[in-house]
Specification:
Layout (H helix, E strand, L loop, with lengths): L1 E7 L5 H13 L2 E7 L7 H5 L5 E4 L9 H7 L4 H9 L3 H9 L2 E4 L5 H10 L4 E4 L1 H13 L15 H5 L2 H7 L2 H7 L2 H5 L1 H11 L6 H17 L3 H13 L4 H17 L7 H17 L3 H15 L2 H4 L6 H4 L1 H9 L2 H6 L18 E7 L7 H8 L4 E7 L4 H7 L2 H8 L4 H17 L2 E5 L3 H6 L8 E6 L19 E4 L2 H10 L10 E4 L20 E5 L8 H12 L6 E5 L9 H20 L2 E5 L4 H5 L4 E4 L8 H8 L3 E5 L11 H4 L5 E2 L2 H11 L3 H18 L2 H12 L7
Parallel strand pairs: 1-2, 1-4, 2-3, 4-5, 6-7, 6-8, 8-9, 9-10, 10-11, 12-13, 12-15, 13-14, 15-16, 16-17
Helix pairs in contact: 4-6, 12-13, 12-14, 13-14, 14-15, 15-16, 16-17, 17-24, 20-27, 28-33, 31-34
């Protein structure tokens, strides 16, 4: 059956279109309509056309970047429409499948022409009558069994001999066609254009424009690596720093969008830092802040450090961050500004006024808040910085924070002062959970004599935010584990200087008393993993362990508690999830793996689990593991690879016999500990006793009281 795609930029005359659709269908065609106009007002008319399908394509340019919208104001309307819709998956799919492409009005002609460059076998017509004639002619003329695509590839001499002279004269239509999907899918075509990008003597502006065109063709052809290579090849030949840096930035973003750790990441970050230094020296703090912000966003991107099973940041923290802090702009930001007056001592004639604050994430604050709400010596208030739009905007304005630190955007500090001063004036102590953007915001201004306490969990160490905090305005920095402190201190020079805050190691607030419930005998054969929503949890490691113990006894199962990873988080997460689902499918079908999903009753689910696993590549303290241990499940902890072999690691946070170096060792520990019901219950009892004596809230709450109310005990 023949596919026909109509493209309409303006609302068509539905009576005429209905008649045309009938004629095409009478000839055995399937007819689809791409609506570039606002179709919402005429849905009933569209439904009456008896189309095989229609699609409302992006109407307006609000979804495009500001830069793209600005450029579109200077181009013809037909081309502008193409830019709005060219990445639409529906249009690509039907444009490539169609035998006939039909523009219903003049402003749709450019879109049909562009689609025809990617689908060279399709007929392209302006108007219904020519399309019908073309289709009738095909019906009366026998077609060859195969047709060769009419792809225009410039001769090798054009590209290799004199690119500067001949490529500039290359007709725009030929250049567009030569960098289209079919050519870039061909190794020969892609190689020819890459040689053009590296040819000597090509003007920088033209080389940059050509590289972007080649990269676009590569991306359309499904070759993101080729797109990156095109951009970096051109960048290496360009002396203009601004143009070179922009191309490298685009190359890195191309790979990050595909979930790939970029090959040119280090050099791109260095280019941006150098650019920021130059702009700062030239007296342009706004532009310098923009370049630095971009460098930090790329250098500490989640695809590189958070959504992977390894990270260059963890491999050698000091070496990783040294180039960043060697730049002039980061040295300026790292200058401690201190405070005019030291924090006041806790009051003796009234309760301590404690402001507990965070931005949206209060997961680890509930017990702390309830404890101090009932404490006679404390008056507590809670502030969620994400609760109001104004506070949220200013709390996460990374570029403005940087610009202010570089001597610009004085208004930012004034806005922070206006929003935060009433809270600072009321509080004796501020406890800010999570050392992310709000910590940078808070240290923009002098806190007066209010004591500032910030808690850093684990995630923050892999982000840019601690590098922007003025720690000379923080009195106490709380960590949840020694290995997290080691990593963060290695990364951030200010934490190694004289202006560094006092440091404390406090376990997370957990009420573990309700977890120690009786387990049925058959729970002995159930392995459990609580929390599988991040790549760092590496549940595939737990599956490997399961398969090893099942070789000895098929009664063992793996129970997964918690929500799945969100494939929208990043391409790297999507790829890991796809592999996890592939491996899990046969195991779920056989009953070897059971997904229990999210739950509000973790203690109840843990009664079914006899062995609790920590399969992560990195953790701060792994609350789910601690809860499992409190429930008398046998703990088996992977020696978290990000910290394994260091002075502090999983082996110093947990009892040594809980931690294993490999899936083989994990399987061996499980089989030995659960060999009999008696050995299993004894091992679980010891784990529960340890958990309740070290991590339960009645024990941990005393360390919080000592921090907020007692003498400081820094180490």
């Amino acid at each position: 059956m023949t596919d026909v795609l109509f493209v309409a930029a303006s609302q068509p005359q539905f009576g005429v279109l209905a008649d045309a659709v009938k004629k095409f269908r009478d000839q055995g065609a399937r007819v689809h309509l791409a609506c570039l106009f606002d179709a919402r007002a005429c849905l009933e008319d569209l439904d009456k056309l008896e189309l095989d399908g229609f699609q409302q394509l992006p109407y307006g340019i609000g979804h495009l970047s500001i830069g793209t919208r600005r450029k579109l104001k200077r181009v013809p309307h037909g081309r502008r429409l193409w830019v709005q819709i060219r990445r639409n998956a529906w249009l690509r799919r039907h444009g490539l499948a169609a035998k006939h492409l039909v523009a219903l009005d003049a402003n749709a002609v450019y879109t049909v022409w562009r689609l025809s460059q990617y689908n060279a076998d399709a007929g392209a017509s302006f108007g219904i009558a020519p399309a019908l004639r073309a289709m009738e002619g095909e019906a009366s003329t026998p077609q060859p069994v195969t047709r060769r695509r009419n792809v225009i590839i410039p001769p090798r001499t054009l590209i290799a001999a004199d690119v500067r002279r001949q490529a500039k004269a290359l007709p725009h239509t030929v250049m567009r066609t030569a960098t289209a999907r079919p050519v870039m899918r061909s190794a020969v075509g892609a190689r020819l254009w890459r040689s053009a990008l590296g040819a000597p003597g090509v003007p920088a502006g033209f080389r940059a424009a050509l590289s972007r065109q080649v990269a676009e063709g590569m991306r359309w052809a499904g070759r993101p690596g080729g797109a990156t290579l095109a951009l970096t090849t051109a960048a290496r030949r360009i002396e203009n720093r601004e143009i070179r840096t922009a191309l490298l930035d685009e190359a890195v973003r191309t790979e990050l969008n595909k979930g790939i750790a970029p090959r040119a990441l280090d050099s791109t970050v260095q280019e941006l830092l150098t650019q920021a230094d130059g702009l700062y020296k030239a007296g342009d703090p706004a532009a310098a802040a923009s370049a630095l912000d971009r460098a930090l966003v790329l250098g500490f991107h989640r695809v590189v450090h958070i959504d992977q099973l390894s990270s260059p940041l963890a491999a050698d923290p000091t070496a990783f961050s040294a180039p960043v802090h060697a730049s002039a702009v980061m040295r300026k930001i790292g200058e401690p500004r201190g405070r005019k007056t030291p924090a006041a001592t806790p009051p003796s004639d009234r309760p301590l006024r404690l402001l507990v604050t965070t931005s949206a994430n209060d997961n680890f604050l509930k017990l702390v808040l309830s404890h101090y709400e009932d404490h006679p010596g404390v008056e507590v208030r809670y502030l969620d910085l994400a609760a109001t739009p104004a506070m949220k905007r200013i709390s996460w304005a990374g570029r403005r924070m940087i610009e202010n630190r570089l001597g610009g955007d004085a208004l930012y500090a004034e806005q922070v002062e206006q929003l935060m001063r009433p809270h600072l004036d009321w509080a004796d102590t501020v406890f800010l959970d999570w050392c992310v953007a709000p910590a940078v915001m808070l240290t923009t201004i002098d806190p007066g004599d209010t004591r500032i306490v910030v808690r850093l969990h684990s995630y923050e160490a892999f982000t840019r935010w601690p590098h922007l905090v003025d720690f000379s305005r923080i009195d106490d920095l709380v960590y949840v584990a020694d290995h997290v402190q080691d990593l963060t201190t290695s990364l951030v020079p200010q934490l190694r200087g004289e202006a560094a805050p006092r440091t404390h190691m406090l376990h997370n607030a957990m009420d573990l008393s309700g977890f120690n419930r009786e387990k049925p005998a058959d729970a002995r054969f159930n392995l459990g993993l609580i929390g599988i929503s991040q790549v760092a949890k590496d549940p595939l490691w737990a599956v490997d362990v399961l398969e090893r113990v099942r070789k000895q006894d098929e009664r063992y199962r793996l129970l997964l508690v918690g929500g799945d990873m969100d494939r929208k988080t990043s391409r790297a997460t999507k790829d890991y999830l796809a592999e996890f689902e592939r491996v899990l499918a046969p195991l779920e079908e056989s009953g070897a793996v059971v997904r229990l999903g999210p739950t509000d009753d973790v203690p109840g689910k843990l009664t079914e689990i006899g062995t609790i696993l920590s399969s992560s590549v990195r953790e701060g303290c792994h609350v789910g593991l601690m809860e499992g241990a409190a429930s008398a499940a046998v703990p088996v902890v992977r020696d978290w690879p990000f910290y394994a072999g260091r002075e502090h690691s999983a082996r110093t946070l947990y009892p040594e016999n809980w931690v294993v170096a490999s899936p083989e060792e994990a399987a061996r520990r499980i089989l030995e500990a659960t060999a009999t019901e008696e050995s299993w219950r004894n091992a679980g009892k010891l784990a529960s006793e340890h958990a309740l004596s070290v991590w339960d809230w009645p024990v941990v709450s005393r360390t919080f009281d000592e921090l907020f109310l007692g003498e400081q005990s820094a180490h």
